[in-house]
Amino acid sequence: MKIATVCGMGFGTSMMLKLFIEDIFKAEGITGHQVIPWDLGSIKGQQVDLIVAPTDMESHLKGSETKVIYIKNLVDKEEITEKVIGAIKELESL
Amino acid sequence: MNTSISLLKSLTSDHIAVKIAASSWEEAVEGAGMVMVNTGLTQQSYIKAMKDAIKSLGPYCVIAPGIAMPHARPEDGVIQTGFSLITLEQPVKFGSKANDPVDIVIGFAAINKQNHITALKEIATHFGDYRFIQDIRAARTKKDLLIILDSKREEI
Asked: Cα dihedral angle (A11, A38, B156, B66), rounded to 10 degrees?
């Protein structure tokens, strides 16, 4: 699955989310996914399976055709693990 | 150059400030920004760029309850990659639905899109440690904060 983490500039918050998600995958033994940090301007038109973004970015991503999950606390391992793995399972079962 | 800089190691005495008086999110960002200007990490213009980024992109730099990580782009006046950490006397609202109000501000300046990676990993790891954050909040003096950071530095 191709997962995009998104923030305004593509190298701060989105990069932190990417590193976090990769760590979670490693810890959980999950393989086969690609995580790419993106800035808001370049995400439109990209073919990805899942978008992960900060909750405060919601208004910028409204109307996205790709499934978006929003993270409130970007340093909360539990929240990120639960939401990301939950979304992957949901998408895989479609 | 692709050397990745450690956040914890770079937060020396000159890079931190404690219980700064700020009455708005703009002043909070200016506080963290001034530390970066004074330590030669960025030009003065970087402070405005950080505020403009929040105005145009939203308050998502408030990454966790009470913690903001404002930054702008390398071309907005970064001289070298580095960080500042300030705590506020009174929390201020950034307009974050998820994580207001803020009393800890981590300023960050990245000269490129690579050599702050170690620091981002440290933020993800250590700033989720509730006890560490509570200790940072409780620090009344710069010396207190340095002791807290030193003890964390020993762990890495």
From this structure: 80
- The secondary structure of chain A in percent helix, strand, coil, rounded to multiples of 5, reads 45, 25, 30
Range of the domain at A58: 2-92
B153 within some domain: no
Q: What is the residue-level pLDDT of chain A in tens, covering all 94 positions?
A: 999 999 999 999 999 999 999 999 999 999 999 999 999 988 888 899 999 999 999 999 998 999 999 999 999 999 999 999 999 999 999 8
Instruction: Give chain B's domain count.
Output: 1
For A75, the closest of B61, B110, B123 (CB atoms) is B123
Whether B63 sits inside 8 A of A19 (CB atoms) is no
Q: What is the CATH number of the domain that holds A64?
A: 3.40.50.2300
Q: Is residue B71 among the annotated active site residues?
A: yes
